[in-house]
Amino acid sequence: MAALTLRPVRTAVPADDDQLAELDRSTWSTLHAVLPKPVPPFDPFFGERYPPEDVLVVEADAETEGGAARIAGYIRLVPPTPLAANAHVRQIRGLAVANWARGAGVGRILVRASCAEARRQGANRITLRVLAHNDPARALYASEGFAVEGVLPGEFFLNGRYVDDVCMGRSLGPA
């Protein structure tokens, strides 16, 4: 694989909708998805529940001459609830890396950026949920300081078997 030239992480904008929706569809896998595989007509990526400002993206410069940058990956970072009692927490609710950008550190860059953004927003803790059989994601999160804080046994029934939902989290230090 040729080396990618990655741009700095940025907040998504409404114009990213088509690229992000395509990225989600092209990376869909039972390794991480609990919803059925998307079928046409496809929903937009952004909506009332998940606006652009909740998404961080990293782009890579296109290798073709005159090509525009394209989104290599995204991470969605949200408050876990609307309650004031846990306004100090942010939750990762989605991470995807384009197949053509795998192995270039995009996921790690996005996880680190989400921690920095959560701190910037005043959070001192960040959490996520990951399927137990998603070893690559669990390893990435663990290497970035996330620890398993709980397991919901058999939380999902996928491909004819029960799959545990693993809750992970880490401190971000004082905000």
TrEMBL record:
Gene3D superfamilies: 3.40.630.30
Domain N-acetyltransferase as annotated: residue spans: 4-173
Keyword Cell cycle: no
Taxonomic placement: Bacteria, Bacillati, Actinomycetota, Actinomycetes, Kitasatosporales
Record Pfam families: Acetyltransf_1
PROSITE patterns xrefs: GNAT (PS51186)
Coiled coil, from the record: none
InterPro entries (UniProt xref): Acyl_CoA_acyltransferase, GNAT_dom, NAT_camello-type
Keyword entries, A-Z: Transferase
Residue ranges crossing the lipid bilayer per the database entry: none
Protein name: GNAT family N-acetyltransferase
